[in-house]
Design a protein that fits this description.
Elements lengths: L5 E6 L2 E6 L3 E6 H7 L5 H7 L4 E4 L5 E5 L14 E4 L4 E5 L24 E5 L1 H15 L3 E5 L11 H9 L4 E8 L6 H8 L4 E4 L6 H8 L5 H14 L2 E4 L2 E2 L5 H14 L11 E2 L15 H15 L27 E9 L5 E6 L2 E6 L7 E10 L2 E6 L1
Helix pairs in contact: 3-4, 5-7
Bound molecules: iron/sulfur cluster.
Length: about 375
């Protein structure tokens, strides 16, 4: 991938270093001029104060998670690793998306009203923890790169994939993408490591695709790349979100397209998802019941002769040992708040080698006493008491 490692420019009274197209380090110009002659560029980028580090795409504060910073990679829904007790491990290296889909379940993109902070995880740290977890699970693991993001924005993707491909328990590497950043050289790179791409295309019609994406979505070029993925030997699963009243006719066109280009060899070609309004996601009024959804999938199955009602078994997913869950609902702790939280009114804390989201108005660096109010698949939420 030809992402220029560091680009420099001036903007709004700041000196800006843009690293790998996404990490934006900003230093006020008046301060930068004073230190520029005395220190190297690397030193200034890493240590100069005051400086702000933000995600170039979303413009949110960006927290860089390294082994040295001590933030664990288990416990948070937006970054690190998620173990739901199967042979599938979700790998979440970055947050932030280049689209603003009107149905986004995690309210991503630059227009987000709920997300305050983005995270990026150092690839070596992530791969090492993944190796530990895969070792616990045994052979036949699928490592799936997804998250509250567009994974192709992760600037260390090739390094991460390379490390993942060396983990002996990992048999399948799969990843999600909205397709915007695909190009020939990226597809060639991905095809060296990735077994399956889950590509989210929600409409074939350009105007409708743009409307659903909340910004320009170059559907023609994404469709071309979809075909290239199939030709590259990777498996392709097209995963539209069906929102009744918005893209009903488009779903039928997507099914036809997937079948025409030969998506889905080892896996099903389509993974049609039901739109579900989430509390902190973007909400639309148009919601189907599960019965209506599955009835329509069954109808399309017989019309197009393709399997659309899927189960974990279609992906070879089975139950496996889970990583130890050392914290229980109702437990109380007192700990220092070590970083900004993903949403406004949240901070991160560390307890028993897990990262905890704490709802609090206190600031980073202060101590808080909190109670764990939700534990789900090793993800922890607490409120200050
Ligand atoms: S591509 Fe996915 S993460 Fe990005 S805005 Fe759309 S739904 Fe959200």
């Amino acid at each position: 991938m030809s992402v220029k490692p560091i680009r420099e420019y001036e903007d709004s009274g700041d000196k800006v270093f843009l690293i790998r197209g996404i990490i934006e380090v900003r230093i006020p110009l008046r301060y930068y001029h004073r230190i520029a002659k005395r220190y190297s560029r690397e030193y200034i980028i890493s240590f100069a104060e005051p400086r702000r580090v933000i995600n170039h795409i979303t413009k949110r504060q960006l927290v860089f998670i390294t082994r040295e910073c001590g933030i664990p990679l288990f416990g948070h829904p937006a970054f690190g690793l998620i173990d739901r007790g199967t042979n599938l491990i979700q790998v979440r290296p970055v947050t932030g998306c280049n689209l603003n889909c009107i149905f986004c379940s995690v309210d991503e993109g630059r227009i987000s009203r709920t997300r305050a902070t983005d995270y990026i995880v150092e690839p070596d740290y992530l791969a090492a923890k993944l190796e530990e977890l895969a070792g616990l699970k045994g052979g036949g693991v699928e490592a799936h790169i997804d998250g509250q993001c567009e994974p192709l924005l992760y600037p260390y993707l090739e390094e991460l994939l390379e490390r993942m491909s060396q983990i002996k328990e990992i048999e399948v590497i799969s990843m999600q993408t909205n397709g915007i950043l695909l190009n020939e050289s990226r597809i060639a790179m991905l095809s060296k490591y990735v077994t399956r791409i889950n590509l989210s295309i929600n409409a074939i019609d350009e105007a409708r695709a743009n409307m659903l994406a909340g910004c320009r979505y170059p559907v023609r070029s994404v469709l071309t790349h979809a075909k290239r993925i199939v030709d590259s030997g990777m498996d392709l699963l097209i995963a539209p979100v069906w929102i009744p009243g918005y893209n009903d006719a488009e779903i039928e066109k997507i099914i036809q397209f997937a079948l025409e280009i030969g998506a889905g060899k080892r896996y099903p070609p389509l993974g049609i998802q039901k739109y579900i309004p989430y509390r902190y996601g973007r909400k639309l009024k148009s919601v189907l019941t599960f019965r209506e959804f599955y009835n329509k999938l069954a109808e399309w199955e017989s019309e197009f002769g393709v399997k659309l009602i899927l189960s974990p078994a279609d992906f070879g997913i089975e139950k496996r040992a889970r990583i130890h869950r050392p914290i229980r609902k109702g437990e109380r702790f007192r700990a220092r708040l070590i970083a900004e939280g993903r949403m406004f009114g949240e901070k991160l804390a560390i307890v028993r080698d897990r990262v905890i989201t704490v709802r609090t108005d206190k600031r980073v660096g202060e101590f808080a006493t909190f109670e764990i109010v939700r534990v789900h698949d090793g993800i922890y939420l607490a409120v200050e008491v």
